Amino acid sequence: MCGLIGYVGNQDCKNILITGMKKLEYRGYDSSGVGYVNNNKIYVIRAAGKLNKLMEKLKFYKNEFGKIGVGHTRWATHGEPNEINCHPILDNSKMIGVVQNGIIENYQDVKKQLINNGFFFNTNTDTEVIPNLIAYNKQRHNLSIIEAINKTLKSLTGNFSVIIITQYNTNTLFAYQNNSPLVIGIGKELSYFCASDPIAFINHTNNIIFLKNRELACISNKTLKIYSQDYKSIKNFKPCYINIDTVQTEKQGFQNFMLKEIYEQSSIINNMINKYKIENYKYYKNIKYTNIKNIQIIACGSSLYSAMIGKCILEKYTNIPTFAFCASEFKIEPPPMLPCVLTIAISQSGETADVLNALKIENERRRNCDILYKVNSIAITNRPRSSISRYVNNIININTGIEISVASTKTFSAQIIVFYLLSLNFIKYKFNNNSKMIDKLIEELSNIPKKIEKILLDEIQNIKKISNFISNINNIFYVGNGINWPIALEGSLKLKEVAYIHSEGCPSGEIKHGHIALLNKDMPVLILCTEKNFEKILNTAEEIKARKSPLIAVSSIKNNILETICNFVIQTPITEEILSPLCNIIVLQLISYYVALNKYIDIDQPRNLAKSVTVE
């Protein structure tokens, strides 16, 4: 979950590294550091805290860095996020520097071996074994630096990527990845870039190479060589051209990226619906709809809640049994294999370790099965060229543009839209093309952007008022039922993520089964109200109010009783029940945003979180 960047070329690397690290902070911001080679010596500057702490230090470094260097933004896995544990990490002789993302699983055994051979360790990180083992292998086996690096990396287990600088070869970066993304950018005038995400160097080049698992790249300002895991030179690697809209990485007048991305949702949904109509139902046409009798969805975090909503949507329109699984649990206790199953994996980044490993397990156990149990899989992602593409048959690109804020907003809504569009295709290709149902759903979906805009126009002051109230509490329940239970869970998660308030989501019918013991004047409840089962929801609201809990309603129904018993009511546009999550989530995202704003929290970079969860 850390961010890596390296540069070698004809320019001073200082500004290139820092600019790239700013783009990579979404991957981790516990600490940061840079390392560079100048006059045949490695220099390292590190700082605990967010990147601005490092930048303050760098103000005192007036000299040029040199033309080769590495940078690192850290999300701590081993060792506290202090300056000692910051990357780059050096070997004992300070001749080898490493920045790493991921985890070295066998580092304790390697560390013990190195200590027995006279090495000492200054940090609590797993990373420190890498430069020291390289130094050991070079000295013990009389190897060249590249041979020592190759031998070292082959002996390490785990999912990780590294960029290495050395005093033995001062004009070369060494880059390696194993199930942890690393891309190389080919710049102009004999310059090369290497990073965890091409966004780090997209202002310099669009020509990139995705390193494959266990490939080692040797990158100098003159040549690029790539070696396979058995140390054979790869001759015919071809760069590909990618196009990233850099405007998406700017706030465009908004105070925070999260608010900008909340406001983008109406246009994103509108674009997705219009594209589907223009392509005349050819969206996702490569999926074999007719053979599918079961559906399983695998996801984590916010994507798990969009999966739960997807289950409701798919079962309503297709009547196909659908199951939503938490990816981290799927790995531990895989469910029984079902025949004729479509596996849908959801990962905003396409790099979520738990999702990728769940897919590996699913692919492996179905590898030698008969035709009924063969793998049929798709991934829903915002990064179609990411690692997840290697594990599925088809990719669905939600194409929302880069989401900078760590808390998911626009990608969450886009994932839900995909399930509506998949349902339309099932209706067309599997269930005899019910044109009336298709036309009705498309019409209803087409009205959603205007309804979102109405919320943003009419309810902001009311939402701010409620946010002021929530800012002063310590605990809250979010309650919904049916398709809005996952929305309650997602709203609850958002409040935890960006406002640091303890929150629980539960089905409205479950309040009386234990949760009610916690209700009192200091335990507010936010309840999602829609037309379906409104009377039952109203009964739940009465039960809550009887325990003196402050009550907040988000409702598409105007009702005098509801308004009487609630402390606050937010009115949402009248919407079909099956589409109501798309409006309700806007309200809950905004509440979380304004509560965090009131508490002076860094909304786009909340503590302990990272956008791309690439470790288990």
Automatic annotation (TrEMBL):
Key words, A-Z: Aminotransferase, Glutamine amidotransferase, Plastid, Repeat, Transferase
PROSITE patterns the record matches: GATASE_TYPE_2 (PS51278), SIS (PS51464)
Reaction catalysis annotation: D-fructose 6-phosphate + L-glutamine = D-glucosamine 6-phosphate + L-glutamate
Stretches assigned to the SIS domain: 283-432, 466-606
GO cellular component: cytosol
Recorded GO MF terms: carbohydrate derivative binding; glutamine-fructose-6-phosphate transaminase (isomerizing) activity
Domain of life: Eukaryota
Pfam name, any one: GATase_6
Keyword Nucleotidyltransferase: no
InterPro entries: GATase_2_dom, GFAT, GFAT_N, GlmS/AgaS_SIS, GlmS/FrlB_SIS, Ntn_hydrolases_N, SIS_dom, SIS_dom_sf
EC number: 2.6.1.16
Any GO BP annotation: fructose 6-phosphate metabolic process
Glutamine amidotransferase type-2 domain ranges (all copies): 2-222
Protein name: Glutamine--fructose-6-phosphate aminotransferase [isomerizing]
Species of the source: Cyanidium sp. THAL103
